[in-house]
Amino acid sequence: xxxxxxMVLDKGLVMMSDTRTNSGVDNISVxxxxxxxxxxxxxxxxxxxxxxxxxxxxxxxxxxxRTKAPEDRDNTLLKADTxxxxxxxxxxxLRETVKQTQESNGVKGRGRFxxxxxxxxxxxxxxxxxxxxxxxxxxxxxxxxTPFFQIGETKYGRPIILRGYDKTMSFEDAVKLLxxxxxxxxxxxxxxxxxxxxxxxERDGFEPTHERRIMHDDHYFQAVSSTWADALRHAFHxxxxxxxxxxx
Amino acid sequence: xxxxxxMVLDKGLVMMSDTRTNSGVDNISVxxxxxxxxxxxxxxxxxxxxxxxxxxxxxxxxxxxRTKAPEDRDNTLLKADTxxxxxxxxxxxLRETVKQTQESNGVKGRGRFxxxxxxxxxxxxxxxxxxxxxxxxxxxxxxxxTPFFQIGETKYGRPIILRGYDKTMSFEDAVKLLxxxxxxxxxxxxxxxxxxxxxxxERDGFEPTHERRIMHDDHYFQAVSSTWADALRHAFHxxxxxxxxxxx
Lengths: 248, 248
Description:
The structure is a homodimer of 248-residue chains.
Chain A: E1 3-8, E2 12-17, E3 20-22, E4 28-30, E5 34-39, E6 43-51, H1 53-63, H2 83-104, E7 115-123, E8 129-133, E9 139-141, E10 148-152, H3 158-164, H4 171-188, E11 196-202, E12 210-214, H5 219-238
Antiparallel strand pairs in A: 1-2, 1-10, 2-11, 3-4, 5-6, 6-7, 7-8, 8-9, 11-12
Pfam family, one (chains A, B): Proteasome
Organism (chains A, B): Qipengyuania oceanensis
InterPro entries (chains A, B): Ntn_hydrolases_N, Proteasome_sua/b, UCP009120_prtse
């Protein structure tokens, strides 16, 4: 399993992903699920992947044209005119990769070998944009009403984002919110695990504003995790008390 | 979908269930998913159901022997010696009902027509007990380490229970905790819906201590729902702030 969240704020884009992959609970590894490419001063494009690891790695490798000799590689994402074109290109690669593996294994319909991708980025002269790309290759874009996307194990960490998100929030608050959301998910699902990857991209920066791998011994994550239990308990006690005898 | 939670506290048992059933989002009805039977002063047995409605209604009808004339009915649950026997009996009925419907429809393996049941109750001279019964008819019992069970759409509402549960808590606090958990779930999944059913059974009471249907206009639920957003935001701001520049 996986947990990744991508968020659009007024200030820019924030992404966080875990790094755990598992094939059964007895076969757990750490793999990066967040990637980015940039042309300094012109564009930055980031993706996070969930789903079949062979599929997502194949997509990333093809994006980087790793089938070619290093000097011949030519990442099409760096030449696309718009983020919409980037999303279309990644969607096409994803669909073809899934389809190819399914066909060569005689798999019909949905299900096996599939993956989803969150795409975030900005190209100079245009807005920062956030997409969710489906295994079928089509995609949706974040909007005012739905300004964040989650992929993988999305449910445990969703209520706090629904309650805490505010598009005017600072990057620091957004990171704090994501830490709480990831902490709730990690506590409930063993197949989502540390370390986490964090990437913050300021609007019109075209560079990672802040990039970090959050390890098991990360002081801030540990502080959030331990303080959140108390803070929640406090919040809980601040609610009105229930009475068996209240008139309603 | 459905959301039901059963909890063991030092003081007794607390159960809450929603009442929404749906066959597609365009076919939504209200059905009770919580039932109980009692012998005053001697036993009280409660179940909550999730899954295929025809299956769960068939199980309840058979428990109550509704195939017989009212005067011939003889609920075996009211004669079982132990809660373990009650769980075994319900498990058997559930397995047989699922199996029968699957066989007469040519369905193989897991999946269709299945249901799960939370069983809670106490028989005089023994402890209050809580079970989770699977469609296969086998079951597990709540313990010190896992003192509550959820069925249906369990994920959204789980983190707050994990953080808030304390076996020494009052019934009122437990109800408050469940209201928050249900509110988070209702906010995230349309197929879980009001009204909610609430049942509190005090240890050695052998009667419902408190029983209530929480309707759409319930003042307390509305207060919890609206206050919780603020309380969470407050809790969130009480967490240490993230800094891009911190040494770690």
